[in-house]
């Protein structure tokens, strides 16, 4: 399902054309409630359209969801005081700033795109159910399962970011949606688990070829496991992790570096990646006419790629570095806006083999100003020009599941830290040169192993959009941030307990006062 297969019709129907409130969107951005699917192809294109929205800058395309799951924690920070990252990373966000959209990235953009997908999902499910024009029962079930996974994923993100929120699973008019209040998070999560279980029961174990970008049943399973863990239902979380480990076709690769091989983006460890293609232009054409980065391209590698004018540490060697890169067909032509944080770089164990992909402070013999995360680099000019990358966006991989299983085993009643270690033995063995180093966390107490998992998830899954979610569910975000020192900002001075959630954007509140009825403080931002 490479992006090139998403035809112009899909972008006309699904792309976000307006910077106005969600309820004031141009109707072309949404499937009409009167839409009728006359064939399987109609329905499949509609589902592809939802995947297209997932690739927007506000979600997985650039640093949309990265804002909320990685920035403002202890792994990444910008190499300069960037205006669109600052409110999140420095904890200065308020209702008004939530509406400020820079390059289609803001709290408001993320809110609108998640709900746009949900509205479309509800229409798809209703119009496919019992519609024999779409195909036989197995075809309809497959389409609905795909749609329910995406809807469940979006509501999961919504509860992570805002907690209580509008929730509906039927086809409503925009006016009806515009008067919805906030549904308790627990109620939404119960519905999410139903969607995800249906998806796991009915999606395939893997997709290949043109469908490689589809989420499989195991993508649904990993989100369910994460929900159980957040609920501290440790045995259920472990059981779900073991389903993935024992029944899925996925396996841990022999080395950490293999996981991030740009020429093997569907390797056996990857549970789900969103696929991207170069030169796909859509909703950004009006915003950035004639620019190379106009389009629904994957911007994320450019966020991690260095910017030559920042490097090297000895600026007199800049021309020499540029020449050395050019000789390899490479360039430092990114933004450098996502680099390893000062704290992360200083604490990453020197003997950990994962360090070379997470902390790059010397390249081609040149000392660099900032420590970069080469696991997400793509410096090649011929196939990956700036802001026009075809690199997949990794969402979930099996190493995460093994770490989750270890945590569940350690936390469940009657759990054993040494048994828990066996779930991550291979992860540790590929991360260290000797058996003794790999087994250094054997024989720990439950609390010691818990703290070891805090670090192990940090080193293994760095900047893969897990960290703030982990720190929040562990209840330690405030403590961690208050002990951080950033290069440009002072998040330790600014963070408050309510920052575990985002505010509902001011424009949404003005359009729908019902959103304040159950919580006049707007998640604490009006205190």
Describe what is shown at a glance.
The protein is mainly alpha-helical. Among the domains are: 38-203 and 465-526, Serine Threonine Protein Phosphatase 5, Tetratricopeptide repeat (Alpha Horseshoe), CATH 1.25.40; 300-386, no CATH class.
How is this structure best described in words?
With 527 residues, this protein is mainly α. Among the domains are: 38-203 and 465-526, Alpha Horseshoe (Serine Threonine Protein Phosphatase 5, Tetratricopeptide repeat), CATH 1.25.40; 300-386, no CATH class. The protein is 44% helix and 5% strand. The chain has 24 helices and six strands. The longest helix has 26 residues, at 137-162. It is globular. The model is unreliable at 1-28 and 282-296 (pLDDT under 50).
Features:
527 residues, mainly alpha, Serine Threonine Protein Phosphatase 5, Tetratricopeptide repeat, two-stranded antiparallel ribbon, 6 strands, 44% helix, 5% strand, disordered N terminus, SusD_RagB_dom
H/E order of the elements? Answer: HHHHEHHHHHHHHEHHEHHEEEHHHHHHHH
**Secondary structural class:** mainly alpha
Number of strands: 6
What profile does the largest beta sheet have?
2 strands, antiparallel
Q: List unreliable stretches of 5+ residues.
A: 1-28, 282-296
| Terminal Cα span | 46 Å
Query: How much helix, percentage-wise, in residues?
Result: 40-55%
Shape: globular
* Chain-averaged pLDDT: 89
Q: Helical region count?
A: 24
CATH topology of the domain at 38-203 and 465-526: Serine Threonine Protein Phosphatase 5, Tetratricopeptide repeat
């Amino acid at each position: 399902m490479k992006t090139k297969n998403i035809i112009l019709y899909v972008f006309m129907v699904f792309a976000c054309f307006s910077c106005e409130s969600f309820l004031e969107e141009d109707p072309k951005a949404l499937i009409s409630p009167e839409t009728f699917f006359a064939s399987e192809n109609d329905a499949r294109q509609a589902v592809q359209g939802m995947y297209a929205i997932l690739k927007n800058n506000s979600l997985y395309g650039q640093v949309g969801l990265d804002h909320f799951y990685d920035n403002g924690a202890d792994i990444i920070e910008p190499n300069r005081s960037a205006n669109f990252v600052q409110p999140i990373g420095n904890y200065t966000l308020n209702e008004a700033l939530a509406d400020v959209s820079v390059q289609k990235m803001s709290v408001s953009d993320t809110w609108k795109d998640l709900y746009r997908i949900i509205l479309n999902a509800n229409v798809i499910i209703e119009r496919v159910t019992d519609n024999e024009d779409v195909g036989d029962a197995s075809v309809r079930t497959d389409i609905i399962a795909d749609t329910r996974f995406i809807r469940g994923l979006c509501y999961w993100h919504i509860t992570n970011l805002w907690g209580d929120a509008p929730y509906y699973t039927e086809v409503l008019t925009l006016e009806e949606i515009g008067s919805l209040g906030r549904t308790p998070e627990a109620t939404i999560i119960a519905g999410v688990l139903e969607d995800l279980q249906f998806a796991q029961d009915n999606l395939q174990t893997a997709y290949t070829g043109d469908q490689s970008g589809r989420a499989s049943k195991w993508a649904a399973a990993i989100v369910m496991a994460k929900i159980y863990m957040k609920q501290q239902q440790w045995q259920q979380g472990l059981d779900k992790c073991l389903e993935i480990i024992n029944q899925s076709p996925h396996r841990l690769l022999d080395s950490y570096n293999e996981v991030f091989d740009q020429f093997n983006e569907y390797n056996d460890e990857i549970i789900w990646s969103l696929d991207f293609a170069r030169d796909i232009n859509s909703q950004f054409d009006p915003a950035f006419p004639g620019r190379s980065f106009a389009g629904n391209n994957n911007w994320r590698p450019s966020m991690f790629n260095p910017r030559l004018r920042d490097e090297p540490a000895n600026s007199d060697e800049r021309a020499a570095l540029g020449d050395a890169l050019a000789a390899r067909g490479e360039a430092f032509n990114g933004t450098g806006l996502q680099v390893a944080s000062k704290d992360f770089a200083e604490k990453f164990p020197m003997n950990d083999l994962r360090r070379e992909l997470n902390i790059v402070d010397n390249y081609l013999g040149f000392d660099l100003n900032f420590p970069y995360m080469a696991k997400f680099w793509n410096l090649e000019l011929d196939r990956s020009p700036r802001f026009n990358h075809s690199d997949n966006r990794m969402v979930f991989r099996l190493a995460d599941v093994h770490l989750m299983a270890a945590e569940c085993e350690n936390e469940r009643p009657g759990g054993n830290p040494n048994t828990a270690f066996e779930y991550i033995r291979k992860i540790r063995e590929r991360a260290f040169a000797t058996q003794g180093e790999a087994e250094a966390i054997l024989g720990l107490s439950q609390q010691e192993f818990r703290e070891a998992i805090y670090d192990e998830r940090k080193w293994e899954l760095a900047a893969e959009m897990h960290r703030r979610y982990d720190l929040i569910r562990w209840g330690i975000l405030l403590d961690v941030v208050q002990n951080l020192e950033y290069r440009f900002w002072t998040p330790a001075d600014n963070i408050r307990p309510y920052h575990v959630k985002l505010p509902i954007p001011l424009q949404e509140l003005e359009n729908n006062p019902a959103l304040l009825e159950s919580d006049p403080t707007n998640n604490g931002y009006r205190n």
